[in-house]
Amino acid sequence: MPTSENDSPPVYREIAEDVRTAIASGRLSDGDRVPGENDLMKQYGVARATARQALSVLINEGIVVAIRGSGVYVRAFRPLRRHGPRRLSRELWGAGRAIWQADSPDGSFETDSVEVAEVPAPAYVARALGLADEAAVVRRHRRYRLEDRPMQLATSYLPAEFAAGTAIAEPETGPGGIYARLAEQGRAPAHFTEEIRVRMPTPEEAAALHLNAGTPVLDVLRTALTEEHTAVEFNEMTLDGSAYVLQYDFDA
Amino acid sequence: MPTSENDSPPVYREIAEDVRTAIASGRLSDGDRVPGENDLMKQYGVARATARQALSVLINEGIVVAIRGSGVYVRAFRPLRRHGPRRLSRELWGAGRAIWQADSPDGSFETDSVEVAEVPAPAYVARALGLADEAAVVRRHRRYRLEDRPMQLATSYLPAEFAAGTAIAEPETGPGGIYARLAEQGRAPAHFTEEIRVRMPTPEEAAALHLNAGTPVLDVLRTALTEEHTAVEFNEMTLDGSAYVLQYDFDA
DNA sequence: CAGTGGTCTAGACCACAAA
DNA sequence: TTGTGGTCTAGACCACTGC
């Protein structure tokens, strides 16, 4: 008698599934209000904690957002396209535009909270740049915003050997950005390698990027190399996963 | 008197933060047991629901996993490297190896639950392949495993016009896989474009990939084009975000 | 069998949003 | 002011792990 009544999913999952299919089927769409805690309690005859647990599933999946005092709403996904190879082409920074402007449809990216410092290289940075551990590097940290929405955090590391004391170590790097400055030194980046990981954000990142619960971030680690394959920059970027689509084109 | 005691974070967040820093500082490392519900209740003098809420934060961040009847443990991250351009080079499938073998350090990938069918193309597939809406396509779905761990789901679409009735529409496509078959037809893939998105998995994907809570997935949408820029395959892949690092190399 | 995490109830007080 | 979501307590029963 005892245990043959097994494997029926818990109530809160079934409630979540009902709401999820209502969204997937289009019965509820972007920005629509979904049944709140009180609605679910009445409709399913469950306690408040159970209704909340059902909603928390959907919130952690990133498909709805809760707004205190107002309700729970279907979340939209309207990403920006970040084109790998094209955006780093010489034409862009050769013409006096900073590379990140290639992301933006209308060039309205803004940069924010810039911090420049000379520091000893962390181990993974030293490895990427081919330097000795703790070798001096210039670190540039900044945040990018588009129409007041924070989109990306970025931290660049360049060997202090050639970056210290130049415009690269200034908050404002001048037309074309650091790549143009490198080119003037005869260290123009010619090859790039990007490494992409996914994870959930730390609380600090969630705050800095204004992320909703259930939004993963993309880590993009880029190493820029000269024609002679000397590493000249290591850039560690953290992107709002709900804001970006990455694109890479290549040949067989 | 009333409200000047504001903005202190809720208890459950502070507990979560304590555990998080214990992990970040290295006091707790991969696979270590972290304080469980009962431990936290005693240490912080909170109710069980509060201790659980603190743990649920960390679980949804993907940094710990809960094992029923046992405890809560620090989660490891040991990803596979998936190298974009290199893995699709002609050498690989020209030599009779399927491309996904490039992912695997020792070639021990296995394929699973293969489904082949001829279906009308969904709108986004038709667009990617340059076909009319609802045009007939061959759909190939499969799951990839490495040492019994499911790593990736993939669904390929090829125009039925040249794929139907060939080995491409069979579960076993022969040496070199579908790309070798395409090459024999004079439709060898020469250009690729990959589009990458991140999101939290659906419950079905979480089950199929054996994902822990708090693990995002990577969607990789690849279009393969011939030398003449005719689209011959559209491949929709869903990767376990905790299992992969993607790498792309390109030139300025 | 004792201990763990998983689910669920029935309350409580709070901060915030919208009417 | 009413209703919403956010936090928290104090219980309960269950399924599973590991000794």
Automatic annotation (TrEMBL), chains A, B:
InterPro entries, per database record: Bact_HTH_transcr_reg (IPR050679), Chorismate_lyase_/UTRA_dom_sf (IPR028978), Tscrpt_reg_HTH_GntR (IPR000524), UTRA (IPR011663), WH-like_DNA-bd_sf (IPR036388), WH_DNA-bd_sf (IPR036390)
Superkingdom is Bacteria
Gene3D superfamilies (alphabetical): Chorismate lyase-like, Winged helix-like DNA-binding domain superfamily/Winged helix DNA-binding domain
Q: Which PROSITE patterns match?
A: HTH_GNTR
Establish whether keyword Transit peptide is in the entry: no
Q: Name one Pfam family in it.
A: UTRA
Please report the name of this protein according to its UniProt entry. Answer: GntR family transcriptional regulator
For this UniProt record, give its keywords in alphabetical order, as a comma-separated list.
Answer: DNA-binding, Transcription, Transcription regulation
Organism annotation: Streptomonospora halophila
